[in-house]
TrEMBL record:
Domain HTH marR-type: 11-147
Superkingdom in the source lineage: Bacteria
Record's protein name: MarR family transcriptional regulator
Organism of origin: Arthrobacter hankyongi
A Pfam family the protein falls into: MarR
UniProt xrefs under SUPFAM superfamilies: Winged helix' DNA-binding domain
Length: 166
């Protein structure tokens, strides 16, 4: 069903709420990142490296650049900046010494906690007002919406002939 600006359609109110939630999340992250001297791209880079580690994957500068849709030069500058602030380390792969892998430092984890703990506390206060079943259903729904966003990004990039993170 095609959408037109200002048109009413089933789910429109939910789309507007999600848009508002995303906007407020972005405002929070921008404000807190600024307060702690980190750019949004810095936070996204550290998050990507931490996510990879949590999933048991190694992440290289090339993969990070692709994930963040950055050029090689911009990725190098980003990693250098995070290295100077003590938030990221480069290390040689144990299996292929030619390959460089990235690691977030304890400092990055501590800074991330300082930045995101107030947000998480507020969100958990809302989550705790709902039953386990409601939270389980909502979690599945949000995962479906996240997956739809990934598909939309891929579709949009394919239509424009662009490239972007997988």
């Amino acid at each position: 069903m095609p959408r037109h600006p200002g048109a009413d359609y089933p789910g429109r109110d939910l789309m507007l709420i999600l848009q508002s939630f995303t906007t407020e999340t972005d405002r929070y992250i921008e404000a807190m990142g600024h307060r702690h001297g980190l750019h949004r791209t810095d936070l996204n880079a550290v998050t990507a490296v931490l996510d990879a580690a949590r999933e048991g994957r190694q992440i290289t500068p090339g993969v990070l650049g692709s994930t963040l849709s950055l050029s090689s030069a911009a990725t190098t500058a980003l990693i250098d900046r995070l290295g100077r602030t003590g938030h990221m380390n480069r290390r040689r792969s144990e299996t292929d010494r030619r390959q460089v892998q990235l690691e977030a430092t304890d400092s990055a984890r501590e800074r991330g906690f300082e930045i995101f703990a107030p947000m998480v506390d507020e969100l958990l206060a809302v989550v705790e007002q709902h039953s386990e079943e409601e939270v389980r259903m909502f979690s599945a729904f949000i995962q479906e919406l996240r997956d739809a966003m990934v598909r939309a990004r891929h579709k949009g990039l394919a239509e424009e002939g662009g490239s972007g993170a997988a």
